[in-house]
Amino acid sequence: MATTVTAAETWKAKADNLTYRAEAFIDGEFRPALSGVTFPCMSPVAGQRLADVAECRSEDVDRAVVSARRAFEDGVWSEASPATRRRVLLSLARLMEEHKDELALLITVDMGKPISYSLREVDSAIACIEFYGEAIDKVFGEIAPTDVSALALVSREPIGVVAAVIPWNYPLLMPAWKLGPALATGNAVVVKPAEQSPLVALKIAELALEAGVPAGVLNVLPGFGETAGAALGLHPGVDSVTFTGSTQVGRLFLKYAGDSNMKSVSLETGGKSPVIVFQDTSDLDFVAESIVNGIFINQGEMCNACSRVIVDNRIREAFLERVVTKAAEWSPNDPFDPATRMGALVDETQLKTVLSYIEVGKQEGARLRLGGAQVLENTGGYYVEPTVFDDVSNDMRIAQEEIFGPVLSVIGFQDPADAVTLANDSMYGLAAAVWTRDVTKAHKVARALRAGNVYVNCYNEDNMSCPFGGYKQSGIGRDKSLHAMEKYTQLKMTWINLDR
Ligand code: NAP
Ligand code: MG
Fold it and tell me: For the chain, what is the mean pLDDT?
């Protein structure tokens, strides 16, 4: 325990010494918003103000898009050899490694997740940048089959100016999932981080410049969705939008594209991911542990959180007892303590949303088995207990709507044939899981689940080679893997007549 306290104090001391980049990053320089306006960037750890950040609006968006367009057209990056782009991205990954503690602290102070998890987020972001750096000089175009009188080349070219609009829950990893493939393929990018957590994205801009990403190729505009975000969505100079966030705002980006220049839009949106637990599962302790991890990690503020468990009634009580015991180990605590598993929710609005859904669950007749309350109020931060509802039916709001907080809904089934129907009865289709020892059943159910990411006898396992994204209203397109490079490039066919 003593070591943990000391470690927490060390992290806190480092946090006190952080300096923040709070201006917009445009054309290789940090500058205030043209209006001079700023907004307060708050920490949910103890409710304190961290910095006054430039509030970019449409005029700043214009400036950034012009700078990105110029950088794209002059070819300094878009026409650089793939080996050059590889070296720069690998050098960015090395700089991120060198600044790992600082990046992790920026995540923790700005959005409240525990420091151990922020360090993991930095590791994942580094792995992502490395993956695309390594990939870019190893992907080839195609030669289409033709008769001998022609040569048909199929090549991929960068799209141009890409706007990346980012949520607050993984303020470094989400930009990395966009920047890795977008920059590797030669585009110029304008990033709009979430208003709740802009600081780490601004730091990445600084590191990218140091690594050799030319001025204008990466721009970061802190600001609000309704102004800066909408201006990017509607801008005629933006060729493509890559968005991660809520389904509701994702829909707006489709509309913006239709109302402006038909820019391509890829969306990674919300989820209400089901886990089916069959009676023949092997080890209920392990299942419970995995599910508790899958819902409470990142305070439940995770797009693919397993927020709906669909469990055979014959093992439901045994399963719930284990879930409740293990979930109790996730009580929120000091985010600077490396032993802490659950930190603060991102802000007061999110706190209120989560608490109001807990009330909805009670009113709908679900049975509260654990948690349900705000805690650590004396810190000034926003903490909610791990919360478990039993006796949930799939038509309740707590089973259908994304809560984006530490709330698990447990739904029982009588007839195993109903399990997949219940799992698929959702507007979302981001992730799903099945637990069973029967390999045939595992394959059949995995195939029947309408979700972009399916886990069998585990949850939230993957690596950079695996695509990530949703079916139905969980999104359009995929992040991660070589497939992500498809959305930042367009196909060109060149037919060469060999007879003339
Ligand atoms: P959000 O409210 O949709 O915001 C996402 C981004 O869109 C923010 O930068 C936001 O700016 C901007 N925005 C908001 N309103 C806008 C508007 N009217 N026009 C243009 N842009 C606008 O989502 P969030 O609360 O930050 O993040 C949580 C959501 O992200 C959850 O639904 C979660 O499931 C989803 N998510 C999905 C994935 C995935 O891979 N599928 C991963 C992570 C998160 P402001 O910050 O100013 O509001
Ligand atoms: Mg913040």
Answer: 97
